[in-house]
Amino acid sequence: MLRRVLESIPAVSGKGKPRYSGENVNFSKICVVGLGYIGLPTAGTFAANGAKVVGVDVNPRVVETLQNGGVHIQEPGLRSIVAAAFQSGSLTVATKPVEADAFIIAVPTPIHPDKTADLSFVTAAAESIRPVLRKGNLVVLESTSPPRTTQDIVRPILEQSGLAAGKDFHLAYSPERVLPGRILRELIENARVIGGIDRASAEAGRDLYGMFVRGEIILTDATTAETVKLMENTYRDVNIALANEMLRLTERYGVNVWEAIAIANRHPRVEILNPGPGVGGHCISVDPWFLVESAPELTPLIRTAREVNDSQPEYVVRYLERVVGNLSGRRIAVLGLTYKADVDDIRESPSLEIVHLLDRRGAIPASFDPLAPALTLPGRRAQTPEEAADGADALLLLVGHKEIRALEPGRFIRRMAAPLAVDCLHAWDRAQWEAAGFTFFQMGDRHGRMQGSDAP
Fold it and tell me: What is the pTM of this model?
C-alpha cells in the first residue's frame, strides 16, 4: 500500500528503477536522527521503498505530532507518505535511537552570532547513536558541515563505543541537495554524492541510498563530499551578491536593473541572478561561513559576498526611508516572512531581519504571510493581507508567494493611510498598481527613482 501511495504522488512517482539494488549490504532497518525538512522526507522515502524506519527527534512535540497523524513541515506529498508509512508499520518515531543496520544524521547545523559553526546538534546525534552502534553498521552524516567534520568530530565520538570506523563499522558523509517544494522528487532524481572514510564505507552508502535513488551516485571521500556541498551553496551566494551589488550600482546610475540583467543575460555565457531583499534559508546564507571559518586568510571573496547579502535587509530599509521618509510612527504592511516563495521555512529569513530593523527605526510593522508558522515578531501579525494594510503608510513586498504576487491593488487602496507600494522583487505590475491609484516603487527600477536623490 505504501508503495502505491508513493507512486500516486506526481512529485515522486518518476520512472525506472534505482541504479543500485543494495545487494552488497542488507539495510532492513534504518534509524534517521532528526525529523526536520530533510530527515522526515528521507525517512518516509526509505519506508516507501521497503525499509523499516525509526525516525528520531529530541523534540517531543515533533514526535507527538507525527504519532497523532500530523506533520510539522509543509512539503507537497509528504503528509500522504508519512501517513501511509505509519499505517503500514514501516515508520515509527522515538526520542532516541534504537539498534539498526544504518543510521542517518540529519540534524541542523546553524551558526553562532560570530558566524562560526554550531555543531552541537551533530555531536549530540553522534553521542546518541554510540550506545546502540554495532559491528557492521553504517553511519551517514547528512547535515551540512565544515570540512573534516565527519573525520574529526563524528568519528571520534562513535569510536568511543570501542568500535573502529572503517574496521568495525562504516562511516560516510552524503549531503542533501534538494529544493524545498520539490524535496520528495529531488531525493529520488538528483545525483547523490557519497563520501566515505574509506572505499568500503562509500560503497555501503551507495547500497543504502541505492534503495531509492534513480540519479547518479557518485563516490568520493568524506571531506571532498563535505566540500562539494559547501562549494555548491557558496557559488550561489557569490552570484547573488553580485546581483545585489548590481542593484545598488544601477540605482546610483539611474538604470533599471531588471532591464539591464535581462539584456546582459542574452550573452551566451552570462547568467546574472535576480537581486532581492537578502539571502535566507539554512543553506546558502549559512554554509559559506563554514569555509570562511576554516580558512579566513583564503576566503576574502566568500566573506565579502556573505557581508553583501547579510547587509541587504539594511539596504531595503534605507530604500524604504527614501520613499516614505522618517519611519518613526509609520505603519508598514510587510508581505512575506519566509526565506523564499511558496515554502514555510523561516530559517535565516531576511524578511524577519527587515521587520526587526523597521521596529528599531520606530516604524509599526504589520506582517502577513500565508505560510509562515507562528512566531514572535515586533508589531502585529495579520491574518490577511487586508488586515496588514489597514491604516498602513506603505505596502512592502518581500516574498513572492503565489497568493501575494496575485494580489489585486484595488483590495487595499481604501484601507491604507497612504496608497504607496514598494516591490522589492520585481513581482508586481507597475501599470496595474498605478492605474489603481498607488504611488508605486520597484527596487531597482529607475521609473520609481526618487527625484533629486542618490540611491540609498
Answer: 0.88
